[in-house]
Design a protein that fits this description.
mainly alpha, globular
Length: about 100
């Protein structure tokens, strides 16, 4: 599937949220096989999405593989420096 940068970031956030929540759930329900399988499925999907983002738009975090040479972590705009920041969108959503 082809994503714009913003769509891909939103997908990463959604899947990342699911991974964190399932991880917390499994802390208290370690024998829930369905949750365990979902956790692994979403973890794998999150890894693929982050790799896709890194290949297309640059590193997403300090642990992401760097596909662009020369190394450009600091030369690319941070998410909040972009024209249509998702932070601005989130603030509008909650009424700030």
């Amino acid at each position: 599937m082809q994503y714009s940068e913003e769509q891909l970031m939103k997908e990463i956030q959604k899947v990342g949220f699911a991974v964190v929540e399932l991880n917390l759930y499994l802390d208290t329900h370690p024998t829930d096989k369905k949750a365990f399988m979902l956790y692994n499925q979403y973890s794998h999907q999150l890894k693929e999405l982050k790799e896709m983002y890194s290949r297309q738009y640059g590193p997403i975090d300090a642990y992401a593989p760097v596909y662009q040479y020369p190394y450009a972590w600091i030369t690319t705009p941070w998410p909040w420096e972009r024209k249509h920041s998702m932070l601005e969108e989130a603030c509008k959503y909650v009424g700030l």
